[in-house]
């Protein structure tokens, strides 16, 4: 009888657990996503929030994404995935959806930045909103990188 080659399951790369998560692409993007998203929330909260509907969505997306990403990072660090392929699908769907939501938040934050240029306390609010817009677009980029790099492992 001819020998059978390695099964498809054994050729799949193992999902990282523990500190290896922080060294493995795309999972290494989770910590920068959390940090940049936290900066978005802090910077928006530091402004006078002259447009509560726009910036409320930005704060909701950034805070919710930070918390869910933190839970996802902790689950990888503690090995809850047990090397299941379903975690890759979950991870990709979460990061793809969050990238779309973050893009909408980043565009709304950029609009709030433009509108804050001539408002009360204009220089300070404009600078804070500009920084929040930068970090919102950076975080969007990180979520997009994470979502697509799962397919290229």
Automatic annotation (TrEMBL):
Gene Ontology MF terms in the entry: structural constituent of myelin sheath
Keywords: Membrane, Transmembrane, Transmembrane helix
Ranges for domain MARVEL: 21-153
Membrane topology: Multi-pass membrane protein
GO BP annotations, alphabetical order: myelination
Superkingdom of this protein's organism: Eukaryota
Subcellular localization(s) per the UniProt record: Membrane
GO cellular component, one term: membrane
Chief location of this protein within or outside the cell: membrane
Keyword Membrane included in the entry's annotation: yes
Spans traversing the lipid bilayer: 27-51, 57-80, 92-112, 132-152
Entries under PANTHER family matching the protein: MAL-LIKE PROTEIN, MARVEL-CONTAINING POTENTIAL LIPID RAFT-ASSOCIATED PROTEIN
Protein name: MALL protein
Gene source species: Leiothrix lutea (Red-billed leiothrix)
Gene for this chain: Mall
């Amino acid at each position: 009888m001819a020998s059978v080659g390695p099964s498809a399951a054994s050729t799949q790369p193992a999902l990282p657990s523990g500190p290896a998560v922080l060294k493995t692409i795309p999972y290494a993007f989770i910590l920068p996503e959390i940090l940049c998203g936290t900066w978005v929330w802090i910077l928006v909260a530091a402004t006078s929030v002259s447009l509560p509907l726009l910036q409320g969505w930005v704060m909701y997306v950034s805070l919710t994404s930070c918390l869910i990403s933190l839970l996802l990072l902790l689950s990888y660090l503690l090995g809850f995935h047990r090397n299941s392929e379903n975690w890759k699908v979950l991870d990709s769907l979460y990061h793809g959806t969050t990238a779309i939501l973050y893009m909408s938040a980043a565009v709304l934050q950029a609009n709030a930045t433009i509108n804050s240029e001539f408002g009360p306390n204009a220089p300070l609010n404009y600078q804070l909103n500009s920084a929040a817009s930068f970090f919102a677009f950076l975080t969007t980029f990180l979520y997009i990188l994470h979502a697509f790099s799962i397919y290229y492992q």
